[in-house]
Amino acid sequence: MLAVQSPRSASGALLLVHFVAVLYTTGFVWTLQLMDYPMVARLKGAASAAYMDQHNHMFWRVLAPGLFTAGLTGLVMLVVRPAVVPLAVVVAFLVLMAAIMVLSGAVATPDRNALAQHFDAATHAHLLKVSWIRTLAFTGWSALSGWMVWRLIAERR
Length: 157
Prior knowledge:
By secondary structure, this protein is an all-alpha fold. It contains four helices and no strands. The chain has helices at about 5-40, 45-75, 85-115, 120-155. The radius of gyration is 18 Å and the shape is elongated.
């Protein structure tokens, strides 16, 4: 027999899915920042460009599921959200995501594409700088989402 969730538990589940998706994505971004991008500078000659070329082809396969889920659940929470989640927090989720997407599309992607052609120390340094901003934005998004989950759990006690 299927149990029908009440709107309260459905909105709580939505927040939990959002939180897990944001944590997944944040973990991936920290891995990029601390391991993947610095490794590019350690590769010699054409290996660096080949590495970034493959990175660019596989990047979205790993990042997209979490980012898409976090974005979609964030949009849904504009309409359906637990009472402990103020609309301003949902708007903050979406503003952080928009900032991350703009930085990614306008700055990081061109840097990654350039590095897939040939390694350039200045481009690499720029990518690392921009990626720190994105990494901190994702970390803030995770913290805010975690705080909302904590509030949800505290409310239900």
